[in-house]
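<derive_structure_tokens>
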Amino acid sequence: MHFEVPKAKSFKEFGGEYLMIVISIITALALEHAVQTWHHRHLAHQAATRIDAEMQANVQELDKVLAHNKAEVKKLNILHDQLLAGLKAKEDSRALGRRLTGDGKFGGLSIQVPALRREAWEVAIASQAASWMTQPQLERYSGIYANMRDIQTLAAGGGTVFLNGPEMLNVVGDINIGEGDAKAVYHIVRQMVSAYDSIDGNLQSLRDDLAKAADTSR
């Protein structure tokens, strides 16, 4: 910033010119601050728009995964009910197993876990655009992405607590060679349904939170 030293001959003239210089400096600083503030708010708005779009994309991904998992659970529940009815009717366990799981009828475990996006949020953090958002907006975004991270971690391993891995491999192996035992298959199917319920419960909760956060941002 450049200014000339006052050349007034009287104290009154000097004071007037000095005051004009001070006012000019303050005005220039205020304008510079206003421009920076507008720029920061513009960057924060752009970042928020991208984050909202990312959350909507994650909601769609969760809807797709949940639809797949629910379809698998529906098939497993049908098999569960058929196995239970046959076992209660005292059908031969191996014959019942072959009838209900033979010819590829038993598809095994097909749980899907969503690949959720975080790029828009991470860019907002890295570029410091997030620091220029309003406090309520920043708290809402940081909370939903922290929840997303936690639910993804739970979903990645949440179903395994309900599954006996070695037993499941043995049962599937028996099914593949046409010797599926209905009782063993029944136990595995119950474990699989529990695994789906655990994972899908967490994913549905996350889906609802994401949809609410995205709707609130509009």
